[in-house]
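S.,

Sequence below, as promised.
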Amino acid sequence: MNGALDCTAEPADVRFVNPKQTLLRPIFSAVRHMARVFYLLIRYAPASETTSIIFSLEAGMAVRNLAVAAFVVGSLLSHQAFAVPDASLNSAARQEVVQTLATKLKANYVLPDVAERVAAAIVKKNADGGYAAATSAQAFSAALSKDLRELSKDKHFRTDHDERFRERSDDGFPTRAEMEAIRDRMAQRGYGIEKVERLMGNVGYIDLRGFGPTEFVGPAYTAAISLLSGTDALILDLRRNGGGRPASVAYLMSHFFPMGDERHLNDLYDRPTNTTQQYWTNPAITQRYDKPVYVLTSARTFSGGEECAYDFQTQKRATLVGETTGGGANPVGP
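The prediction came back faster than expected:
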């Protein structure tokens, strides 16, 4: 499946990280914590003690403000010292990147005719000097990303410069440390679940932002459905869902059919291995939801989020409400 899902008709894992934001996050967290403590002190302290609390806080505030300010400025200066410089690229480096990219596209992209056309286009543009002005890694990455998306009509495409990147072998598996890091990251993000709520009228609401590895997010999906099992209807909000693992989409879908009703949801073809993987509902899941379901979509619903909406639509299990989705419901990899 590839392309946008038009929900106006009748009822289709990579993030940019700002290093400065990453470095400053602990600072902002500490400031928020201090503000919260101050609020609780004022909110719950007896009236007779409020004045003394404010006075005590203000007494040391000047020194603390200076300390916090110095810490923030020092962190910003340190960031400049440790920031990764934007590498410069000469014509030979750009030529190597374009040739390698063209080769990888033609060998791996799911649509061979599109791969041939896109590869030929970027090779020709580079030969004609079309990328000559992109003398830095960031500028070249941005130019390639733009061209790849426009030429292929596939919004999954993105190029970036990463000195740490190493191409994985076909039999490469994450180490135990890598898996623990993924588990921690999923937990910190609420396993992709932004909100679980019971709205007025006894309507359940789940705001789901992504589909992480099934072994981590699966139990969270079941817990969310269990919390809302007594509602009369459910709204699944995929308006800001950027996608993720197809297996996790199938795991979530498994909650919405009766026990014993096994459904074939989707097939995904992998061109490098020339194999097709089928995705079915999971009969081992015992928590089921049999009430009406409404799925919200937007132009930001992408990739696995589109697949989820598509599955609900083709299985006639939900009413879709919203905008045409982003148009990238095909699996990707580095």
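The beta strands are 193-199, 203-208, 233-237, 264-270, 275-280, 293-297, 319-322.

Coffee later?
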